[in-house]
Amino acid sequence: MGITVQNITGNTAMVIWPKMASCVDSFYSIMYHPNWNSMLSSYSRKSFQKEERVPTSRSSFIVENLTPLTTYIVCVTCQSANPSSDQCRVFNTLEQDPASVSNTKKDLALGIWLTSGVLLLIIAAVLLYGCLHLLCRRRRERLQGQNGTSKQDHRKAWMEGSEELGRQSQLMQDTEEKHPGGIQLATIIENPSACKEPVMPTSKSQEQVPMTGQCSAI
User: Fold this and answer.
1) Range 77-92 burial, b when 16+ CB lie within 10 A, else e
2) pTM score > 0.70 for this model?
3) What are phi and psi of 188, to 5 degrees?
4) Residues 195 and 212: beta-carbon distance below 8 Å
5) Residue 40 has what pLDDT?
6) What CATH number belongs to 4-96?
7) What is the pLDDT of residues 165-207, one digit of tens each?
8) CA 179 centroid distance within chain
9) Alpha-carbon distances of 214 from 121, 199, 203, 208, 218, rounded to whole Å
10) Surface-to-core class of residue 1, CB atoms within 10 Å of its CB (0-12 exposed, 13-18 middle, 19+ buried)
11) Which sequence spans correspond to the domains of the chain?
């Protein structure tokens, strides 16, 4: 068939084949397998590890994800038919490309960095939530303590007022018990007309008040 393998690297290879008239209304099958040994392996389609289907409009295909320093066999057939020896080629992959190794390391480092960043963000979010929850709980406990103290102060003031009223009531009761008759206070109002007339004694036992024009209070 004139199948050729070009642009071989450690991980890829380009397979080129001529177009076949029998595959105009069908497709091409590209089959390849690593560690090929012609003495132990057959050309049966089941012997190949991977198979790709390509439209008949194409006449080349890039095989990817190969293993460096490995012997491969690649076959091109029409419509998944079992290949023959003239439809296959054997090739060896090269060493790992330094640029590819560098890119792989960069991708690995980037993946590790992204994973670490996500984990750190999750840990920071958990710690922040815990701190906020703890602050809210302490503030709520402080407010509850202040409310309890205020209630206790009101209750204490009310009890002290009640005790004071009780003491005053008891004092008044004790005073009434000691002085049953009570104490009466009289207000003396000066009568101008009485001051002008002499005061006459009502009985012999009483003394006469001098008529000096002054008022005397009894």
Assistant:
1) bbeeebbeeebbbebe
2) no
3) -95, 125
4) no
5) 57
6) 2.60.40.10
7) 777 777 777 776 666 555 444 444 444 444 444 445 444 444 4
8) 78
9) 107, 10, 21, 14, 13
10) middle
11) 4-96, 97-149
